[in-house]
Each structure stands twice: as C-alpha cells, then as structure tokens.
C-alpha cells in the first residue's frame, strides 16, 4: 500500500477503504508518512469529502492511535458533555456539580483554550491549589467518591488528532465536517464515558456560523458516537451573543458559583437545565426530560449542587475558601465602565467580537505558548432585547494593563448595537439531534 495511491484515490473523489484509512493514520502518527503527503490527503478530503462510513473509520483509527481510558471501575453509567466552543461558555463548571448532585457520575477529561478565553482547565486554575493533572487511578477514585472529576487529557490519548489538527490549522483544512466530527468524537470516545451530550454552538461566536452547518455537524457526531456504542445526543444552541454575562476565566468561575447558588443568568441556567436533563435521561437517573429538569432545579434550590462543587474542589486539592468567598479569586486592578451613548434597545451583541475584546485584554491565548491573565475579561451589564438609556453602563472591562483598555473599549462599543426593539426574541435552543431523529425548534 502506498500513500501516493491513497491521495490520488481521494483526489478523484473515490471512497477510501478501512485499511487505507488505518494505513494513513498509523503511518502519520508514527512518523513514516511526511507532512507534505498528509497535507495533500487532508486537502483531498476537504475538497471531495468523506461519507459516513469513512468518517466513522477515520474516528476509530484516531481513537486507536493512542491509549483509551477504561472507566469500567466507576460504578454506574458514566456521562460526559462537550461544547464546540463559544464566548462565556463556562457550562461545565455549573453543569458538572448539578448532574453529580443528582447521583450521576460526570467523568470529564478537558482541555485548555486557544483563542477568546481559556478552556475549562484554565478557568479551574483560578481556584488556588486545584489540580487537574491526575493519574487514571486518581480520576477513577474521585468519580467514584464524588461523582465528579474534571482533569486534563493524558498525552497518550488520540496522538493522531493532535498531529492532524496542528497540520489542518496551517493548511486551511480545518473547516470540513468529517474532519471536525472525527476530531471531537475521537477524544470523547477515547475518554471512556458511556453517554455523551454535545452542545453544538451556532452563530457569530461559534465555529459553525449557520444553522444548516450546525445541524449537519451535530448529525455527523451523533452518528459516530452511536455507531461505536456510545449513547450520543446533540443540542444546537445559540452563540450569536455571549452566554451569560461573564467572559474571562475568574469572572466565569464566579458566574458559575452564583448559578449554583440560584443566582445564574437566565440563558445560562436554561442551557444547563437543557443539557443536564438529557444527561440524566441518558444516565437513567430520570425517566423524562421534565423529571430531569425538576431534579436539577431541586439540587440548586436545596444547596446540594453548590455543596457538590465544594466537594469536587476539595477532592482535587483546591482551596474551598475561594468558592465560599469569591473575592479571593484573581481580580483585575482596573475595572472600566462602557456607557451607552444612545437610548434604545440592545439589538445585538456580536459574540465573536466580544471574544476578541476579551482576548485583547489578556483573557485568552493567541498562541499555545501565550500566558493567560486569569483576572482579565468583560462583564456585560445588558443582554440582547434589554432597554438602555443614554449613560447606562452596558459593560465593564476588567484588566491589569490599562493601556489595552482604550482600544478594547472602542472594539466593544462597535460589537454592541443599540437601536429599535427586535420584532422577534431570538432562540437559545434551535434543536436536538439523537440517534432516531432531528428536531428543529
């Protein structure tokens, strides 16, 4: 078998066999296939696409390129949640404790952020002492005791994906449904959970900008998950405006804590309830979505979800005083008000532009080597459809480098449009995809 022939075959729009896909992934992971040939095949896949069988085979080959995590020693059905990424997306920080407080094991291996703000691990590092580098034995032990653990992925999970993604990033081949779906699902499958809920974001601040593409990606990932025996469901949610009010690592931790105390933003709470109810249904802790939602509301109202957060932080070596008193979390030395110059209504808040503003303040990474300022970020004071008077504060910029704030303030003002009231209130949830059907709301 020759790589030349595989490239030529896909270039001509023909279907690759399982053996050819395995040959490519194994050879590239082990360094026998050079970047220039891998790049050529990725471009051929980008242009000619893959069918469902090829995509499943590609995902399986990437999973098998490294070690997989065996969670059989964890009692019960293990669940996981994955978001395709957005602005202000601190969902795991609140959803994990909510689900675990209902008795469902939430076993998550997460990553760091590249772009707008940090990833889940970066956010957790705002809590003093909290460890995310855990052995598999520690991970399993904590999930069994606490029903919740969030740790970093081991270097040996899906090494092929790490190499392929780095190559896709510099060869303009990122934006392909099969390549995106296999990249996401290979990591979820290798991480070992039985059931997976995917939060597929759509809008200006998301990878998928339009609804049709978001539903296609959701269906592809759900099909992959279910084809390898993982109960998988996707929720398509809005990312035209940031989720909640907080954008930035420490700020998002505070908002997640407040949510577990019953003081969360309406859109963020609704998303957590929507995703959490699906997880409880997949984990057989609830017999219906309605029952699942009631269970989640109850653990927030009776304090069990907040207490579960404390238990989780303590189990991973974190200082729970940082949860009990959020003033201890990293704080910016400068907080700058952005005021409205007009009367009217918030017509739109461009999530992507707000994300870029947070990045410019230091809340994210421009490269993998960049340092994150955990205190930097933005707190919105208004959401889409809110009434605004001239002089009202629409947002607060949190920064430690005041010199950055002036330009960011201009960027942020341009990202927030004020005008007449929108005729129709936008949706938060656009639909659901499972192994049986696609439902659009």
TrEMBL record:
Which stretch is the leader sequence?
Answer: none
Keyword Glycosyltransferase applies: yes
Keyword terms of this UniProt record: Glycosyltransferase, Metal-binding, Transferase
What Pfam families does the record point to?
Answer: Glycos_trans_3N, Glycos_transf_3, PYNP_C
Which Enzyme Commission numbers does its entry carry?
2.4.2.2
What's the catalysed reaction?
thymidine + phosphate = 2-deoxy-alpha-D-ribose 1-phosphate + thymine; uridine + phosphate = alpha-D-ribose 1-phosphate + uracil; 2'-deoxyuridine + phosphate = 2-deoxy-alpha-D-ribose 1-phosphate + uracil
Alphabetized InterPro entries for the sequence: Glycosyl_Trfase_fam3, Glycosyl_Trfase_fam3_N_dom, Glycosyl_Trfase_fam3_N_dom_sf, Nuc_phospho_transferase, PYNP-like_C_sf, PYNP_C, Pyrmidine_PPas_bac/euk, Pyrmidine_PPase_CS
Q: Does the keyword DNA-binding apply?
A: no
The cofactor required is: K(+)
SMART domains, from UniProt? PYNP_C (SM00941)
What region holds the Pyrimidine nucleoside phosphorylase C-terminal domain? 345-419
One term under GO cellular component: cytosol
User: What does the record list as GO biological process?
Assistant: pyrimidine nucleobase metabolic process; pyrimidine nucleoside metabolic process
Give the matching PROSITE patterns.
Answer: THYMID_PHOSPHORYLASE
| GO MF term set | 1,4-alpha-oligoglucan phosphorylase activity; metal ion binding; thymidine phosphorylase activity
- Describe the family membership recorded for this protein in Swiss-Prot or TrEMBL: Belongs to the thymidine/pyrimidine-nucleoside phosphorylase family.
- Role noted for this protein: Catalyzes phosphorolysis of the pyrimidine nucleosides uridine, thymidine and 2'-deoxyuridine with the formation of the corresponding pyrimidine base and ribose-1-phosphate.
Please describe the quaternary structure of this protein.
Answer: Homodimer.
- What name does this protein carry? Pyrimidine-nucleoside phosphorylase
Origin species, per record, is: Proteiniborus ethanoligenes
């Amino acid at each position: 078998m020759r790589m030349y022939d595989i490239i030529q075959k896909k270039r001509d729009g023909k279907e690759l066999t399982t053996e050819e896909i395995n040959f490519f992934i194994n050879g590239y992971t082990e360094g026998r296939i050079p970047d220039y040939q891998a790049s050529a095949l990725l471009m051929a896949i980008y242009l000619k696409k893959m069918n469902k069988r090829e995509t499943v085979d590609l995902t399986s080959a990437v999973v098998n390129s490294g070690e997989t995590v065996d969670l059989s020693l964890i009692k019960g059905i293990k669940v996981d949640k994955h978001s395709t990424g957005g602005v202000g997306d601190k969902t795991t920080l609140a959803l994990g404790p909510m689900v675990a407080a209902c008795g469902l094991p939430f076993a998550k291996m997460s990553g760091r952020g590249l772009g707008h703000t940090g990833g889940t691990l970066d956010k957790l590092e705002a809590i003093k002492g909290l460890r995310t580098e855990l052995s598999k034995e520690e991970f399993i032990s904590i999930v069994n005791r606490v029903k919740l653990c969030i740790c970093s992925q081991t270097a040996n999970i899906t090494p092929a994906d790490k190499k392929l993604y780095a190559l896709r990033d510099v060869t303009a081949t990122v934006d392909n449904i099969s390549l995106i779906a296999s990249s996401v699902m290979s990591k979820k499958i290798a991480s070992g959970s039985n059931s997976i809920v995917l939060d597929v974001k759509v809008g200006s601040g998301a990878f998928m900008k339009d609804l049709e593409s978001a539903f296609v990606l959701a269906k592809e990932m759900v099909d992959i998950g279910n084809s390898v025996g993982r109960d998988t469901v996707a929720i398509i949610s809005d990312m035209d405006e940031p989720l909640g009010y907080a954008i930035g690592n420490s700020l998002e931790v505070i908002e997640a804590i407040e949510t577990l105390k019953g003081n969360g933003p309406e859109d963020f709470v609704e998303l957590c309830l929507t995703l959490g109810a699906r997880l409880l249904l997949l984990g057989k802790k609830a017999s219906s979505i309605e029952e699942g939602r009631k269970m989640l509301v109850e653990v927030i109202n009776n304090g069990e979800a907040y207490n579960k957060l404390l238990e989780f932080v303590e189990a991973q070596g974190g200082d729970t005083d940082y949860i009990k008193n959020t003033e201890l979390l990293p704080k910016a030395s400068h907080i700058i008000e952005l005021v409205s110059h007009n009367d009217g209504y918030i017509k739109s808040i461009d999530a992507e532009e707000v994300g870029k503003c947070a990045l410019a303040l230091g809340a994210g990474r421009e490269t993998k080597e960049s340092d994150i300022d955990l205190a930097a970020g933005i707190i919105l004071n208004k959401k889409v459809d809110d009434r605004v008077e001239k002089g009202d504060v629409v947002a607060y910029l949190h920064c430690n480098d005041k010199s950055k704030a002036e330009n960011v303030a201009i960027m942020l003002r341009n990202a927030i449009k004020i005008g007449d009231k929108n005729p129709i209130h936008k949706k938060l949830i656009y639909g659901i995809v499972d192994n049986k059907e696609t439902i659009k709301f």
